[in-house]
Design a protein that fits this description.
Strand content of chain B: 25-35%
Number of helices of chain A: 13
Structural class of chain B: alpha/beta
Strand content of chain A: under 5%
Largest sheet of chain B: 6 strands, mixed
Structural class of chain A: mainly alpha
Number of strands of chain B: 12
CATH superfamily of chain B: P-loop containing nucleotide triphosphate hydrolases
Strand order of the largest sheet of chain B: 6-7-8-3-9-10
Largest sheet of chain A: none
Oligomer: heterodimer
Number of domains of chain B: 1
Helix content of chain B: 25-40%
Shape of chain B: globular
């Protein structure tokens, strides 16, 4: 396979961007309550339009769009983009294609934090969402800093980072299992439901918090495109010989990836696979240059999660299958198709 | 002007990997670093590029101690050419070569960078391969890409870690001839760690023979590749000579 030319890259970005906008509009306007396109668009733009235009829009449409559908679409886009971005960065910095944001134990830690908050709350976590989010976020960060601390003791190399992450994943997995073992049946249901990652019940608060974190993290990671290329090209020594401060770069990139992942996991639960597969799809389409790969992977991740959520909501309506589950059904065939296609071309 | 080290010592665990190394690489000379496995060739190269910090002694580049410089400043003066193995996560040939401009990215415009990369691809016979994935190249092609990367880095000193060990005979010859050309034409100083003693003798201005972390002998190949030194450093009885002006070393038996 030949890597992508600039023209092909531009085409890929344009196509994917358009697809994302169209899918986003479609997902927002379709659901149990179907809306005609024109009406839906008008309802969304309602605050900007003169009052006379609004006569034919049922108020319920506006309510559904603005409080349910729009935040859900946006959270799916942000979560998909953020997880994919973190995955691409982590794979580059560790030079390991099997790494995802979860490899360093963030998701088991977040699950543990959430479980703890659910057990501690008086109503079994049914009513109060905020403590669960905060606890999940803090546990994810604690895990990330443990991993970085352990790696710092042994010299921050990719292998040590991944291995300490694997170790801590098991630790937090065991802690979560222990909590589930002592939980009541009602609490257990809430915990399990949380663990199935989903953008179900997305709120504007979730959109704003995760969106802001992504807005801060994206430029930080994008600024390290050259450095990530150097790591990918030959690991620590080559990156250092090409003039990059290896340890500092690794810490900045890892912390940025961890922050965005932790924020997303706290609101959306564990959505695996996007962070692993979106960078691979990106690499197969636009090549390995991180200056291009990071934004492209983010687009791929956003589209994957949006499609997964839409499919999960519509295929078995009114039952909603969590996006975290559907995304694997959707992503695995795409991934295998690209992988086998590449193998045929002699990769 | 030189890339030099004085009384350099490195200890890993309890083992002295390098000790008491005094060495200077001048611009315009090609020095081959030879010695048995584990004698300290790669360690010395890593110390000279500042990838390892020596426990004793210091490394200076053009008079300035390495620790006083930023990594980017070091990278503008010293280029490191690693062995050509390993996956690169789908980087293309052009992207691999472009990385040589990373230490200069503050000064480069996209156009000037593009021109330098084009020139390097042409010089190292890589035209038409720019968009190919590095991971799919043959060993000889990979080596040329890594040399092209060092070329665009425009450093005064080149450090090559066993550039020929994965290559067949013809590509070994080509790789060393390319390094020789860079030294003669651009007046860079090149230090090449290498196992092939005949090739080292043929292409280098002088040899440095390492034995268990110390420099046993340094100088022209006739002084370094003597049966006595080879017996001590490699544990072999060797026949050394020349055929049509080309030096050869044949290991005959264990000493």
């Amino acid at each position: 396979m030949t890597a992508a030319t600039p023209a092909r890259r531009t085409a890929a970005f344009t196509a994917l961007g358009l697809l994302l906008v169209c899918t986003g509009a479609f997902a927002t306007l379709h659901g149990v309550q179907h809306m005609p396109l024109a009406t839906g668009l008008k309802a969304m733009a309602a605050p900007l339009l003169p009052a006379g235009w609004l006569a034919d829009i049922p108020p319920s449409y506006r309510a559904i769009l603005l409080t349910l559908r729009l935040p859900r679409t946006l959270l799916a886009i942000i979560a998909g983009a953020g997880l994919a971005l973190a995955g691409a960065a982590m794979q580059g910095i560790t030079r390991n294609p099997l790494v995802s944001p979860y490899t360093i134990g963030i998701s088991p830690a977040a699950s543990f934090g959430a479980s703890l908050a659910i057990l501690a709350s008086t109503d079994g976590g049914a009513g109060s969402y905020a403590p669960v989010v905060v606890a999940a976020f803090l546990a994810a960060l604690a895990c990330a800093f443990l991993v970085l601390g352990l790696s710092a003791l042994r010299g921050v190399t990719g292998t040590v980072l991944v291995l300490s992450g694997v170790g801590l994943s098991y630790l937090f997995g065991a802690l979560s299992s222990t909590l589930q073992f002592v939980a009541t049946e009602q609490q257990l249901a809430v915990i399990v439901h949380w663990a199935f990652g989903s953008v179900n019940g997305a709120t504007w608060e979730a959109v704003i918090v995760t969106g802001l974190v992504l807005l801060v993290v994206f430029p930080v990671l994008a600024a390290h495109g050259w450095a990530l290329n150097a790591f990918a090209a030959g690991g620590d020594e080559v990156a250092s010989s090409l003039g990059f401060a290896v340890a500092r770069t690794r810490i900045v990139v890892t912390v940025a990836a961890v922050l965005v992942t932790a924020a997303i996991v706290s609101y959306a639960g564990v959505i695996g696979f996007v962070g692993l597969v979106a960078p691979h799809i990106g690499r197969l389409v636009v090549g390995g240059d991180h200056r291009v790969l990071l934004p492209f992977s983010a687009l791929v991740g956003a589209l994957l999660l949006l499609l997964a959520d839409m499919a999960g909501r519509m295929l078995f309506a009114p039952v909603v299958v969590p996006a975290g589950i559907v995304v694997a059904y959707l992503g695995v065939p795409i991934f295998l198709h690209l992988l086998l296609g590449r193998a045929r071309h002699g990769a | 002007m030189s890339l030099s080290c004085t009384s350099l010592g490195v200890t890993r665990g309890r083992r002295a990997v390098l000790s008491g190394i005094d060495f200077a690489l001048e611009p315009g000379e090609l020095v081959c670093l030879v010695g048995a496995n584990g004698a300290g060739k790669s360690s010395l190269i890593r110390c000279l590029d500042g990838l390892w910090r020596p426990g004793e002694g210091e490394v200076r580049v053009d008079g300035e101690p390495l620790p006083a410089l930023t990594r980017a400043q070091v990278a503008r003066r010293i280029a490191y050419v690693p062995q050509a193995g390993g996956e690169t996560m789908a980087l293309s040939v052009a992207e691999m070569v472009a990385l040589g401009r990373a230490p200069h990215r503050g000064q480069d415009t996209a156009a000037s960078r593009g021109r330098r990369i084009e020139a390097a691809l042409a010089r190292f016979d890589l035209q038409g391969m720019a968009a190919r994935a590095f991971d799919q190249l043959s060993g000889g092609e990979r080596q040329r890409v890594l040399l092209a990367r060092a070329f665009v880095q425009e450093a005064r000193y080149l450090l090559l870690d066993e550039p020929t060990s994965a290559l067949d005979l013809r590509h070994q010859l080509e790789a060393l001839r390319t390094v020789r050309e860079l030294v003669d034409e651009l007046r860079v100083g090149a230090l090449v760690a290498i196992h092939d003693l005949s090739a080292a003798a043929r292409f280098a201005d002088r040899l440095v023979l390492l034995e268990r972390g110390r420099i046993r002998v340094a100088g022209p190949w006739q002084d370094v590749l003597t049966p006595g030194h080879l017996r001590a450093a490699f544990g072999i009885e060797a026949r050394v000579g020349t055929v049509d002006g080309l030096p050869f070393v044949i290991p005959a038996q264990r000493a």
